[in-house]
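Appendix B, example 12.
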Amino acid sequence: MEITRKGTPFKVEGTQPAVGEQAPDFSVKNLKDETIELKQFNGKVVLISVVPDIDTRVCAVQTKAFNSAASAIEGVQLMTISTNTKEQQENWCAGEGIEMEMLHDTDASFGKAYGLFVPEMNVLARSVFVIDASGKLIYKEIVSEMVDEPNYDKAIEVAKAAR
């Protein structure tokens, strides 16, 4: 698969999971250095917002938009994942006054499990996944142009309907 950044193509490694399949499990750390695995959220709807670099404008907009919308939905677990370091994510959250489940995928293990790693830039492709309470992937959007925002409304609509 390929995505673009301001029109320049970049190769995305791996195979993305398909809607209807069980979502691949993953193991990454949050800002408290706790290991977070998808299987911990069995029985809950999970919305995963993936951003290439939290310290860029579109990633900040995406993270704030999902944090604002999804945090108000009872029964939905929101998590944001990027390849940024823990310190970069902590600094961003502190600067924005936001507390949320922010996961750092510095070794790209999540990115490789979901087929999102862009090795040339050492980032993950901008994307959104919604996983139902049984662990099945029910929505995915991989944004083809990195500087474009995802479809917030559609992802939130699917997450709400899955509760």
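The mean pLDDT is 96. The helical segments are 57-70, 86-96, 109-113, 152-162.
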